[in-house]
Queue: 3 jobs
Job 1
Amino acid sequence: MSSTSDTTILHSSVLQQSFAISRQLHRYLAEYCASEGFKLEFRRRSHLFVPLNKPRFKEKIGHGEVLADGFIWDLEDSIPPGQKQVARESIPEIPRKPGNVEYCVRVNMGEPHLLEKDIEAVIAFPFDSVTLPKGESGEQIAQLMKDIGEDRNYIVTIETIKGLKAVDEIASVLRPGRDALGFGVGDMSTDLGVERISTTESALFQQILGQIALAAKARGLDLFDSVSARLHEIESVQAEAELSAHVFGFTGKKLINPKHLDAINGAFSPKAADIQEQLATLEVFLGSTNTNAHVVGTEYKGMPAFKAANAKIKRLLRQGYFPDLILTDSSHELKQTA
C-alpha cells in the first residue's frame, strides 16, 4: 500500500473488528457483493432450541434480544405428549425474524402419527429449515424432503447406532452448500448404553464426531455439534465447542441455554488473525497478476492459497460478516441456502 489515501477500512459489526485494506481490494469485494449471483447465507454458529409451547420466549426472540444465529422451534423432545397439538397450533404466532437468522423446526420422527400432524403444520409456515432427528436411512430422509418440500433446508441429526452406520448414505441425499448433518449425544448415549459425558472426555464420542464430519465434508454439508451435557458449566461448553470447531471442523453447535451463546459463537467465529491473513493474500495476488506465486508476510504462497483465501472471504461476505459492503435492495434478499 503506497499511501494512507490508498487504504480504507473494512469493518465487521458481527466480530467487532476492523481491517485496513486497499481501495482496490475494497472495490473487488464490493463488486462481488453487487454481482447478480450474490446471495446472503445464514451464519450457523449457534442454533438455540425453543419449545413451541412456551410463549414467553417468542417476544425476546422477535425483538432480537437473543443473539443466536438460528432458532430451532421444537415439536419433539421438549414438548410433553399432551402439549404436542398446542405446540403445533402456536406456530402461526412465531414472531417475524429479527434479521439474518435461520428459523428451523424440529419434528417428531419416531412416531408416524405425530410426524404426519407435524408435517401438516410445518408446511403452512415459511420455516427456512427442518431438523429431522434420529435419521436412519437415505431413503427415509429423501422421502421426508419430498413430503415437506424441497424448498427448505434440512438438518439431519445422527442419534442412533443405525443412523451412524448409514451416515454416508444419509449424506448422499442431502444437498451441498445448504443442508447439514448433526450429532445428538443424548439419544446416542442411550442407544450405546453408555454414560452421557462431555465429548471432550469421551474417545467414543470423538470417534463419532469424526465419522459424521467425514461424511459431511465429503458432501459439502454443514455440521452441528450436540447440546452440551454440562448445562451450567460454561467452561465445559466452551471446550466442547472448541473441540468440534477446530479439531473436527464443525460449523456450529446446538444449545438450550442462552447463557452458552457467547462461548459457542466465539468458538465458531472466524478468527481476526485468519481473516487478516486471507485479506493480505488477496491484496498481494490482486496487486500483481503477472505471476502465480507471491510472498505474503513471511510465507511463499501459490494459486491454491489465493483460491482458498478468495473462497473464505467471499463466504464471510455471503454470511453477512461485513454488512457495509452488502446492498440492501431486493436483489440481495436472504435465500434459503446454507
Note: The first helix runs from residue 23 to 34.
Job 2
Amino acid sequence: MSAPRCLIAGAGRVAGGFVAPLLSAAGWETLLICRNREVRDAINAGGGLWLRVTGAPDRWVGRVRAISPEDPELLAAAAGADLFATSVGPSSLAAAGRMLAPLLGERLEESSAPANVITFENHRRAPELLTLGLLEAHPQLAGEIGVRLGIGGAAVWRAVSRRAVAEDGIRFEADAVEECYVDAASLVPGVPPLDGSIPGLSPVRAFDDRIIEKLWIFNAGHAAAAYLGWHAGCRTLHEAMSRPGIRAAVSEIVAEARRAFEAYLEIYCRPVPVPSRPPGWILDRYTDPALADPVVRVAREPRRKLAADDRLIGPAIACRAAGIEPSALATAAAAALSYADPSDPQAVNLQRELELLGPAEVLSTVSTLAPQDELARLICRSYHERAAEEAAL
C-alpha cells in the first residue's frame, strides 16, 4: 500500500521547516509545488531535506519531493493526493488558489473521497483569500466547498528562521515548538487531517480564538522586536533582544497584547482556548541565539502587519474597546510604519506614501483608522517622536 500524499503549494520556511517534517514523521509523502529551480533540484537530489531544530542534531527528513507548477505530471500527482495545503504567504494566496483550482477539480473528479486544504499561513483571512483565487479560476468548485472540499486555516507556533541551499541539499533551521492548530469547523470530517492520521495537527472548533492568540501575543512581540531592532541597527532578533531597552519595550508590548486577548475572550464570552503561556516563554523564543533570526525576515511586509485584523493594530483596537490605552502597541505600530529597509518593496512603497500623505492618512488606508481616532493619534505621536529622535542623531 502506497503512503498517503500531501500536495503543498510553496516550498518556503513553514512548508520545509514544519509541515514536511510533521508529515514525514507520520509516514506521509510530501510534494512541494515550487517555482524556484535551485530549490527543487536541491530537494529532489536526495528526496528530502535537512532540518536543524535548536538544541538537537541535524535531522534528515525523507519522502519529500518538489515539482514545478508547469510540470505536466502535476495534474496526475494531484489526482492521487490525500491532502492539499498552502505555505506561500498571505499576499500570494489568491495566485495559489488560481494555480490549485484545476488540480483540485481533477482530484474531485477522479475520486469520490472528499479532500481538505489547509492554509499554513498564520493569517485570519487565509482560507478566504485562497477561496477567492480558486473560484476565480474554477467557479464550479463553489458547489463543492463545505461538501466534498474543506478549506481551513492553521495556527503554527513554530518559528522557522531560514531556508538555505547547501552542498548536501536544502537546509531549514527552526525552534523546537511543534504546536499547530487547524480549523476543524471548516474541514470535511473523516478524511485527513481530521481522521487522526497526522499527529501534531490539533483540530479545534473555536479556531479563530487560536489564531488570534497566536497573532496578538506571539506575533505582536515578534514583529515589535524586529522593528525596534531594525531602528537600533540590529541584524538579528537575538541581538535586538539583548538590548535591555528593546527587551523591556517588547515585554510591555506582549503584556499589553495579552490583556487585549483576555479582553477579547471576556467580551465574546469565550473560554480560554489554551493554557496561558508565561511571558518569559514568549520572550525567550525571540532571544534564541541558535536561530539567528534576521530582523528583516520578521519585519518584512509592514503594510500587511499594520492591517486592522493583524498583529499590531488588532490587539491595540481590542485594548481601546476594553478601556486600556495601548501605548506600547502604538509604539510598535509607529516603528513598523517607519520601517524603511530598502530590500523590502512593501516598506519602500509605504515610505513613499508617508512622504506624500503623512502618517495619519496612510494609517487610514492601511489600518482603516480614522485620523481623529485616538489610536491613530497615539501612533502618529509616536511616529513623529521617533522621526525627531532619528533626525537629531
Note: The first helix runs from residue 13 to 25.
Job 3
Amino acid sequence: MTNRISRRTLLGTASAAAAATLIPATARNALAAGTSGNPIIIGHQCELTGWDSATGFWRDKAAKGLSDWINQNGGIAGRPVKLITVDTKSDVDAGVDQLRHLLLEENVDFVIGSEISSIALASNKVANENKTLYMTMSTSEGTTAKGNAVPYQFRMTTNSAATAAGAAQKFVASVAKRWTTLYSDIKWGQSERDWWQKGVSAAGGEAISSVALPVDAPDLLPFVAQSDQSAEGIYIPVLNALQAIQLIRNSGLDQKIVLAGLSFSLFDYRELGSVGEGIFGVETAPLLLKDAPSIEMAAIYKALGIDNNGIEIAGGKAVGSSMVLGIAQSLGFLKANVEQSGWKTKGDTAALIKHAETVTNYSKGALFPLGDVTMRPQDHQAFMDIYLLQIRNGVLSKFAVAAKESTIYATDVDLTKE
C-alpha cells in the first residue's frame, strides 16, 4: 500500500501556522497547555562548537524554534515535544558519546542526528542497536548506501548523489562543459567528487581532473595551484569554502565556481565580498523568500526571527536555509508517522518504521514548506527539488531549480526486506 501524508496531517493549514507565529507569548503558552500526557522526547545530536558549528547554529535554532512551534499547535498526537540537545564538538568520539548519553541516560524516543558524515556513520549503527529512530542530517550518499543503511535511520534532507545528479545537468547545460574538482579529503568530499564526476559525464560534460585538499593543511595555496586551468568550471566540496574561493580568485583563476551541496550554510556568503560575485551553490532551499514564494516557509522564517531576505533579525547572520529545511522536514516526518502509525512508546518504533516505508510522498505543508517530498522506502532516502543559487550584485539568489525527479539515483539496498 502506498500512502500520502496530506496537509491536514501536519500542523494544520498554512494560514493557521503563520498566525501562530504572531500570537503573543501568553496566548502561545495557553495553546501549549492543550497538549497532555508524557512528552515525546527528541534528542538532537548537534554541532554547537568545533569546525561545523556554523551549520550547527542553524540546526539548533531551527530544532528549538520548531519544537516550540509544534507545541504551540497541539504537539505531536496531542503530546508535548521535549527537545534535548547535545554538542558533538564536531568530533567523532565526542559525538558518539553524546549520542549514547541521549539513548541511555535521557532515554530519548527519537534522535535528529549529526550533519558530519563521520559522526553520522558511527552513530546510526549505535542508534539501530538501541532500536531508536535516527534522522540523519549527513549529506554523504554513503550514509544510506550498502554497508551503512540501517532500518532505524531515515534521511529527510538531500545527499551528495542527489545534488550532483540534479545540479550537474543544469550546470553542464548552462555554465560549463569541462570541470575540475577541488575537494576536502574526507568521506563527504570524496563522495561529492565521485558523484559530481558521474553527474557531469552523464550530462555530456567532461570531468577532467580533481585535487584533494588535506583538511589539516595550514596553507591551501599549493593545492589550489594544482587546479587544471584548462577547465571551464571548478566544483568545490570543501570545509573551508570561504578560504578556498578567496585563494582561487586571488590566484587569478577566473573559472566558474560551484560550491557543493549545502555549502552556503558553512559561512555567511557576504564575507566573500567582491570575490564572491558569480559564485554558484547547490541548496535545498533559497535564502530569499521571493525565490520560492511559500506561505509555509514565510511562517517558519517568522517563527525563527528571519526576515524576507534570509537574514537573522537579532544577529544579522545570513540563514543556513538548507539546515532549517532539513530540520523542519525531519520533524514533519516524525509528527506525521507518529500520528498515522499510532505510535505510543519506543516499543512501537518498529511498527512506525514499517508504516513509514509505505508513505512515499509528503505533501507541501507547514513542515514541508517548499513542495512535495518523495521518500524511497528501500534506503529511507528523501528526494526534493534542489535550488541552484548564485551571488549576483552581492545577493545570493535563485539561478535555477533542479526538479526532484532529476535528483533520483539508483540504490543498492532494500531495507523493506529486513
Note: Residues 321-341 form the longest helix (21 residues).
